[in-house]
Amino acid sequence: MHLKTLLLLLFYYSVHATMTYKWSRAMLFPAAQRLKRSSATFLNPVLQNSLEDVVLLYEFLLAELDIDKSQRISIRDEELASLRKAAEFDTICNEVIPKSITEIRRLSSRLSSYPRVLKKEDFERTVLTMVYTAYRAAQSQGHQKDTWAESFVNLYKALKHDLMFPYNKESS
């Protein structure tokens, strides 16, 4: 049931996000605008372009991720890691999403005052930031665990608000 719900949610959002308003992507994920030109990275990569892409993203997350001491994220499953979409996933996870608690709090703050529905790439990056934040919360203890957990909750609230945005606007 959870898989179906997640897939439906991601697909719905992917379709819904095509109707978003223009607002600078750099304000939410500045690293997406600073990808190295000399590297083989993709310009503004997006994982979800179809239902199959949503399923593949879910498979990446289920395949167990390795997060090394320098916080570099990789897919453990070699077959999945060899896919073209895995290279885009790597770029987003290691060059675009924020990793420090300060950057994640800054993202949460920006999301809380974001005036429009998120673009699908911003929604996707926020979900991946939540995954990373959940991992860090699980690996931390004491005050740090609380800080990471609070950041996770704030990102969750921002995504929930974003999904409800058209309904919130109608009730105002």
From TrEMBL:
Name the record gives this protein: Family with sequence similarity 180 member A
Keyword annotations of the record: Signal
Domain of life: Eukaryota
Recorded coiled-coil stretches: none
Pfam families associated with the record: FAM180 (PF15173)
PANTHER family: PROTEIN FAM180A (PTHR34034:SF2), PROTEIN FAM180A-RELATED (PTHR34034)
Signal peptide span: 1-17
